[in-house]
Amino acid sequence: MWRLLTALVVCGLLPQCTGAPEPTPSSAAVTQPEPAAVASVTSADLGATWRPGCPVAPAQLRRVTLTHLGFDARPHRGELIVHQELVPQVIAIFERLYRLDFPIEKMRPAAHYRGGDDELSMADNNTSAFNCRRIPGSGNWAQHAYGRAIDINPLLNPSVTRHGFEPKNAAVYLDRRRIEPGLLHPGDPAVRAFTDAGWRWGGDWKSPVDYQHFERR
């Protein structure tokens, strides 16, 4: 249903519009979400997303199961693997996103995808966090390798460089004038849910401009 919304929609009606005030919660979000659940993880749980030599051990990570609003306007449960130090913040941020009616299509660990492939996860519009991988074109570890970064609706919010964009099926979303729910724009309440808690947003960067990416060092 959300794909039918176009730029003809009055911006003030959408909580994701730039600079819009935080909206009054819908009847779905007014319902108290199921409490978050936190569990430890093993190397077997992390599958291809972890290997010896990664900058954090499985013991430093936690699986956080959270309620999020789907594009069907109904609550769903999803999972993120994050650094243990960030668990309270992650829970608070996603509770705020839920109250904002900010939709997330799906939320599962990158290990769900063959080989922990980040491109496959992004192309599937999957919101995810931990993945022991390097920054593309760099020998440096990505903040995802520490469990300190989260990519939100990555198909709708691609990462853009001078040489191209990721995921490869996101061409239509390079037009950041689009205002469908689930997109992120400067000043959005959903962006502020992260930045108010001290997280950095890749949409503020110059190269890459990483609209999906939030990190907390």
UniProtKB/TrEMBL annotation:
Name used for this protein in its record: Peptidase M15C domain-containing protein
Any GO MF annotation of the entry: peptidase activity
Keyword terms, alphabetized: Signal
Entry-linked InterPro entries: Peptidase_M15C, Zn_M74/Hedgehog-like
Domain Peptidase M15C: start-end pairs: 137-215
Record lineage: Bacteria, Bacillati, Actinomycetota, Actinomycetes, Mycobacteriales
Species this chain originates from: Mycobacterium novum
Pfam family, one: Peptidase_M15_4
Signal peptide positions (record): 1-20
